[in-house]
Write a structure and sequence with these properties.
Blueprint lengths: L1 H16 L4 H12 L4 H7 L9 H35 L19 H14 L4 E2 L5 E3 H4 L11 H4 L23 E3 L5 H9 L4 E10 L11 E11 L4 H16 L4 E9 L2 E10 L11 E9 L1 H6 L8 E8 H9 L12 H4 L4
Parallel strand pairs: 1-4
Antiparallel strand pairs: 2-3, 4-5, 5-9, 6-7, 7-8, 8-9
The structure holds 3,4-dihydroxyphenylalanine.
């Protein structure tokens, strides 16, 4: 019996290693240890042996069973490994260079935003962000634009239903109305309520208006807000800051001019035009580019600052507008069309 068992194990070792599939494995396993398997058959002969030979024979058969089970386990592991390898596909050589990996480009609006933040960063401005879902308080009321104010018409936007709640961004609790912010000026209030002056911040971000899309209008676009509050800030600081910005962006020949205007939260307020006659793509005209002014004393009082001690300036510019002028883009909708042929043109 011992010789028979040894032969059975040797044969199993050779045959099991050649198994390639699960059905073949199952069939082979049955041929050894199934109800009609050869090892099972030998176990059945135990009863016919003389009584004194049975313990030794039983021991041998049990050892053979353990050996056969190990051979079967090993064969199954090999089949599973080759199934996994088939699913994973051919092996990868991580040391090879990547074939033709497409390098991404930054979007032109990102380029302009980053460049403006970089330029003003050299003057000590740092970036603050505010939420796009804003409350009426931060977007309008605290900026001296109450709900019956005519300036609200120009900044009509998307209001959320009365009962909508957005966590803890509200100052007034349950009576608050939520909307999509129409400008980044809301971040002025958020910053001044959170930080003590001197404050010198920029706030880039997305804004929303109820608007019909055409070549120069979009229901959402991007702005960069600027705010400085300190002791002794004057219009000179504002003008010099914007001159520096536009000369850095467009070259030293660039000029800016202020025209009186109205914004609820600055007094006096200005619209800013620039001229870059040295740039052929910009042309000879003055181009209206942004709004600005001296922070209204009422805004300072609203955030608990004494206007006799503190003064400041603020400005807000449209990123699309500047990108269109800089790059000669004639339709604002190009920026949002996700056409890589457009986006790839800028660096
Ligand atoms: N918030 C204004 C707008 O969206 C832009 C603006 C004007 C921002 C004057 C200011 C400012 O900070 O002082 O049209």
């Amino acid at each position: 019996m011992q010789a028979q068992l040894q032969e059975l194990i040797a044969r199993a070792r050779a045959e099991a290693a050649a198994l390639k599939t699960r059905p073949a494995f199952e069939a082979y396993k049955a041929s050894l240890v199934g109800p009609n398997g050869s090892l099972t058959g030998m176990m059945k002969t135990l009863g016919q042996l003389p009584k004194e030979e049975r313990p030794a024979a039983g021991k041998m058969i049990n050892e053979a069973k353990v050996a056969v089970q190990a051979i079967l386990d090993e064969a199954l592991r090999a089949i599973e490994a080759s199934e996994l390898a088939a699913r994973l596909g051919p092996a990868i050589d991580p040391t090879l260079p990547t074939p033709d990996f497409p390098v991404g480009r930054r979007h032109p609006l990102t380029l302009v935003r980053d460049e403006i933040c970089r330029i003003l960063g050299t003057l000590g401005f740092t970036v603050r962000e505010g939420p796009e879902v804003e409350t009426e308080y931060y977007c309008f009321d605290a900026l001296c634009t109450p709900s019956d104010h005519p300036a609200r018409d120009a900044q009509d936007t998307y209001y959320f239903p009365e009962k909508t709640r957005f966590g803890n961004i509200s100052k007034k609790g349950d009576s608050e109305k939520y909307l999509l912010r129409t400008h980044t000026s809301s971040v002025q209030i958020r910053t001044l309520l959170a930080e003590k002056p001197p404050v010198r911040i920029l706030s880039p971000g997305r804004v929303f208006r109820r608007d019909n899309a055409d070549a120069t209008h979009s229901a959402n676009f991007h702005q960069i807000e600027g705010l400085v509050v300190d002791r002794g800030i004057t219009v000179c600081d504002l003008k010099a800051t914007l001159d520096y910005l536009f000369q850095s962006l467009l070259g030293p020949g660039t000029k800016t001019r202020f025209r009186p205007h109205y914004f609820g939260y600055t007094e006096p307020s200005f619209e800013v035009d620039f001229a870059a006659t040295h740039l052929s793509k910009v042309g000879k005209e003055w181009i209206e580019i942004m709004g600005c002014g001296m922070v209204d004393p009422l805004v300072l009082e609203e955030v608990g600052l004494d206007p006799k001690e503190w003064s400041g300036f603020a400005f807000g510019l449209g990123v699309e507008r500047i990108a269109m002028t800089l790059y000669g883009v004639d339709d604002i909708r190009h920026f949002y069309a996700n056409d890589v042929r457009f986006v790839r043109q800028f660096s």
